[in-house]
């Protein structure tokens, strides 16, 4: 049995793991999902959200035995957590996620992708502090292969995404490097190009790189398949007793 902490991506919340959590629990794992600051039930004002506060929210929920799964933008705060306290976790799993390069922000990482996929799908708030995805773009961008009933479920819960933490560079050292890592690449992704994911996945050993034939939202599209992959990763980690 593994202890898994699930960390959502932009504009989402702990709610997005609704279908994955029972699938993982059925495999015998302990599973928790958290809301990052200003998301879900967290009351933090958007203007107060920082990369450090996202990092600290994750560290508050981990133990040295925790496998932290970060989706999409979630790859940044889980990496910041590993840099700050590598002893506070067992491993990182990047799920269709950004793996930071030293000194770059997530915004800079996104701009380095071989294809820009979201430039016409984003609408900034009038104060310039956050953004949302345009409703008419969401289905094709995130949920094009998900069961129809999940789309209205997600639409009703999406929230503004603070820009500041995504525009904050992250410095990394050997502390980050020594945390074991795995990557799950989504091969039908229309948000983060799958070829860019393949490039970023090389931060993990070859044996810990996996693919799933879904959109950017495998937790809705194929929750059982995703649970099986996470189960395999937990078992394949060095020193695993799962």
How would you characterize the overall build of this protein?
The radius of gyration is 16 Å and the shape is globular. The protein has 242 residues and is an alpha/beta fold. It has a 6-stranded parallel β-sheet, sandwiched between helices. The chain has a 3-stranded antiparallel β-sheet with strand order 5-6-7. The protein is built from 10 helices and 9 strands. Helix 1 (20-26) crosses helix 10 (223-236) and helix 2 (51-59) crosses helix 3. One of its GO terms (molecular function) is transferase activity. Residues 4-228 form the AB hydrolase-1 domain. This is Acetoin dehydrogenase E2 subunit dihydrolipoyllysine-residue acetyltransferase.
Summarize the topology.
Elements lengths: L2 E5 L12 H7 L3 E5 L16 H9 L6 E6 L3 H10 L6 E5 L10 H6 L10 E3 L5 E4 L1 H8 L7 H6 L5 E2 L11 H4 L3 E6 L7 H7 L8 E4 L5 H4 L1 H14 L6
Parallel strand pairs: 1-2, 1-3, 3-4, 4-8, 8-9
Antiparallel strand pairs: 5-6, 6-7
GO molecular function: transferase activity
Pfam family, one: Abhydrolase_6
Protein name: Acetoin dehydrogenase E2 subunit dihydrolipoyllysine-residue acetyltransferase
Give the gist of this structure.
This protein is an alpha/beta fold and 242 residues long. It has one domain (3-236): Rossmann fold (3-Layer(aba) Sandwich).
Write down the overall mean pLDDT: 96
Category from helices, strands and their pairing: alpha/beta
CATH class: Alpha Beta
Helix content: 25-40%
Rounded Rg: 16 Å
**Bulk shape:** globular
Q: How much strand?
A: 15-25%
User: In terms of quaternary structure, what is this?
Assistant: single chain
Query: Under CATH, the topology is which?
Result: Rossmann fold
Number of helices: 10
**End-to-end gap:** 5 Å
Number of domains: 1
CATH superfamily annotation: Alpha/Beta hydrolase fold, catalytic domain
The largest sheet, given as strand count, sense and whether it forms a barrel, is:
6 strands, parallel
Number of strands: 9
CATH architecture: 3-Layer(aba) Sandwich
Uncertain stretches of 5 or more adjacent residues: none
Strand order of the largest sheet: 2-1-3-4-8-9
List the helices and strands in order: EHEHEHEHEEHHEHEHEHH
């Amino acid at each position: 049995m593994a202890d898994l902490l699930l960390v959502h991506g932009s504009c989402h919340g702990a709610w997005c793991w609704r279908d994955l959590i029972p699938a993982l629990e059925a495999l015998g794992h302990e599973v928790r999902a958290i809301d990052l600051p200003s998301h879900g039930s967290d009351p933090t004002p958007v203007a107060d959200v920082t990369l450090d506060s996202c990092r600290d929210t994750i560290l508050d929920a981990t133990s040295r035995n925790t496998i932290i799964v970060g989706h999409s933008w979630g790859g940044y705060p889980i990496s910041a957590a590993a840099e700050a306290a590598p002893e506070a976790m067992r491993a990182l799993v990047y799920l269709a996620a950004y793996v930071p390069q030293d000194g770059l922000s997530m915004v800079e990482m996104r701009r380095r992708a071989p294809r820009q996929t979201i430039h016409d799908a984003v609408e900034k708030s009038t104060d310039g502090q956050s953004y949302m995805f345009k409703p008419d773009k969401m289905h094709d961008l995130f949920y094009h292969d998900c069961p129809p009933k999940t789309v209205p479920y997600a639409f009703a819960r999406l929230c503004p995404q603070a820009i500041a933490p995504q525009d904050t560079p992250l410095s990394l050292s050997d502390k980050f490097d020594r945390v074991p890592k795995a990557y799950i690449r989504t091969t039908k992704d229309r948000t983060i190009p799958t070829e860019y994911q393949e490039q970023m996945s090389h931060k993990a050993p070859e044996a810990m790189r996996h693919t799933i034939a879904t959109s950017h939202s495998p937790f809705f599209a194929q929750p059982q398949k995703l649970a099986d992959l996470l189960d395999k990763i937990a078992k394949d980690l060095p020193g695993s007793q799962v």
